[in-house]
Design brief:
heterodimer, A: mainly alpha, two-stranded antiparallel sheet, globular, B: alpha/beta, 4-stranded antiparallel beta sheet, 10 helices, 10 strands
Chain lengths: 263, 254
Amino acid sequence: MIVVLPIALIICLLVIQGAPALSLKFLFSYPSEGMRAGGIFPAIVGTIYLVLGTIVFAVPLGVMAAVYLSEYARPNALTRLIRLSIVNLAGVPSIVYGLFGFGIFVLLLGFGVSLLAGSLTLALLVLPVVIVAAEEALLSVPQTFREASLALGATKWQTIRRVVLPNALPGVITGVVLAIARAAGETAPILFTVAAFYLPRLPRSVFDQAMALPYHLFIMSTQVPNAPPGIQWGTALTLLIIVLGMNLIAAVIRARFRRRRPW
Amino acid sequence: MVDGDISVSIGDLNVYYGDFHAIKHVSVDIKARDITAFIGPSGSGKSTVLRAVDRMNELIPGARTTGEVVIDDRNIYEPDVDVVELRKRVGMVFQRANPFPMSVFDNVAYGLRIHGTASGKELGAHVERSLRAAALWDEVKDKLRQSAFALSGGQQQRLCIARVLAVGPEILLMDEPASALDPISTLRIEDLMRDLAKQYTIIIVTHNMQQAARVSTYTGFFLSGELIEFGRSDKIFTKPEDKRTEGYITGRFG
């Protein structure tokens, strides 16, 4: 109860306060009158772009890392170091990622404040989630499948690609969806790497800045005096629906996987 | 000790798991196109010797093998032996039927696809041939697209045999292939083995002495990692020379 109550209260409050603000016009129009009216369309689009960019970088890297850890790594000092790094990576405060991304991607590599820099920063942030979920999924594939494949003369890589990965896919997807939810909701990592206060148009290349829902919510609450509270509540509710929706999809995939698992 | 062609010649085989000396100086010849059974109590090392013939022990971390296993005048433990080629020639059927979570057809086609042996129309013909050879075709010809898990346990095990046959091996290793099956399915597997023995060299590991006596021409008795006695099955099961063999087959231990 103690756990459920605050969550229920937050959701109730958001729905009560935010629902009246939600409308097609709110979702599909640009902010206007110095952010004090209009909608949040560019922030929604920016968040979608950021999520896509994060997936592009984090998923291949994360899945490859998980394949290495579960199929190739021997239990030695290097492997322990890698695992320790992943655990620690998951524990680093997100603002640190933001500053790291600003230093490396924005300044050092010269990407500027851009979708590219923001996606890379978010990708680093969600990498541990993807690796851990993917590795768990790979380890849940029975050893007998690997043995059967190798005994038929398959190479290790053929076994991984044709037998292990396809059977681990639902678990991998679960991790990906959780990563998306995380990437969509974070503010600190995008603060210095991609987020724009206001843009009159949508980003056109990966080197453009973008607006994003969590940052929009942050500025509407702190940087814009006399902003109507409806915009803030509406933004918060939209963000919550996107994130909870993602988590729900992850849960459904996982449940289906468990039920359909034939072994 | 063995008449006729020899398919596999094991010489002074030792297998270690870490510090544990699991297989001790085992030497035995396996007759070609015939059935040889390995019997012995649990932990006697019979499965380990079997797995040494297609180098499957290498998958176990910390396992080490010395001695030789000669197939076609070549020791398969020489460093330049291609394990993939070896495992194409030496197929393995496991204790529990372990079809892949794919359709019946894809299970049999798996080996053909990874080795690029057949494709298109040829693939279908090859799959049918393998299923027929495993005495399964008539039962599954209308279920080729269904999941392999929809088959019964005995059918799944014959599917695994078909999957191995499709790769075109000369030697079949069977690790208690019927121990998880009911008596009827077990008899079908034994019939199949006798049929396959016309073309293939078969080594079977079994706990079931009646089974060994029924299907095999030669039998080896293992105890604590040593090959205690080896000879024609009719002799091993009626007039064993070693007291320990006699004790085991008469049920005094094991």
